[in-house]
Amino acid sequence: MKQEPVHIPLAYDPRAFPPAPPPHLDDAETIVEHDWKTFASLSSLDDHWARPGWHDGRRAYYWMLHITDPAVVDLARGCQRLLAHLGMDPVPEEGLHVTLCRVGDAAEVSKNKIDRLAEVTRQRLSVRQFGLRAHPLAGSRGAVRLTLTPWRDLVAVQQQLAGLGTELGLPGGRPVSCFRPHLSIAYNNVARPAEDVVEAVSELRAQAAADVRVSAVSLVELRREQPVYRWNSVVSLGLTG
């Protein structure tokens, strides 16, 4: 199957992190440096769990990539061990994921609509399997995370998934222009100055990157059980080879 061309809709948005997308979506060095410079410029970090509207027990549907590649898992676990003195909440091995887009709260999206979304996506998603690299290490206002490169295929699949949800009248979430793909490995759990965290993260940036193979996308019902995210899988859709 021929990969469909994709319009890249990313734009500056203060709700995203980094607020500005990288100037090139295919150049790993550019993306890694852009992620790092934006994270290193922070003066303070927020408590990730103090998010308006989120509470234990709330459930919402999301499209995501569930990351299980052994090399990436090992990289994440190694970085978590070396950052343990910061007291952050590590993402468990089974919880490593890349959020693609929000579908809507479980309270406002019926099971029939979710089943319809899964079926339409199965029929119409036209993205081939692709590879990524996970690079150590950067972060955001509320997490420490691996930088992913390149972005173009991630943006393509995210754009298609979000577009199908919109077409079916689902609530969705932030605009496509806010998409900033990343792989969080630990969540910051207290408001604090950024300096010590940035310094600790900087010492891990020389480690080798790990390869990721993206062969499926997952529709999940996500919930927060502080201090972790957990989900029930609705459907996993394989990408064409």
List the helices and strands and how they pair.
Layout: H1 28-40, E1 44-45, E2 59-66, H2 70-82, E3 89-90, E4 97-105, H3 111-124, E5 130-139, E6 143-149, H4 152-167, E7 183-187, E8 192-193, H5 195-202, E9 210-214, E10 216-225, E11 228-238
Antiparallel strand pairs: 1-8, 2-4, 2-10, 3-7, 5-6, 5-9, 6-7, 10-11
Would you give an account of this structure?
The chain has 241 residues and is of the alpha+beta class. The chain is built from five helices and eleven strands. The chain has helices at 28-40, 70-82, 111-124, 152-167, 195-202, and strands at 44-45, 59-66, 89-90, 97-105, 130-139, 143-149, 183-187, 192-193, 210-214, 216-225, 228-238. The strands form three sheets. A five-stranded antiparallel β-sheet has the order 3-7-6-5-9. The chain has a four-stranded antiparallel β-sheet with strand order 4-2-10-11. Strands 1-8 form a two-stranded antiparallel sheet. The longest helix is centred in the middle third of the chain and has 16 residues, at 152-167. It is globular, with a radius of gyration of 17 Å. Mean pLDDT is 94; it is low at 1-6.
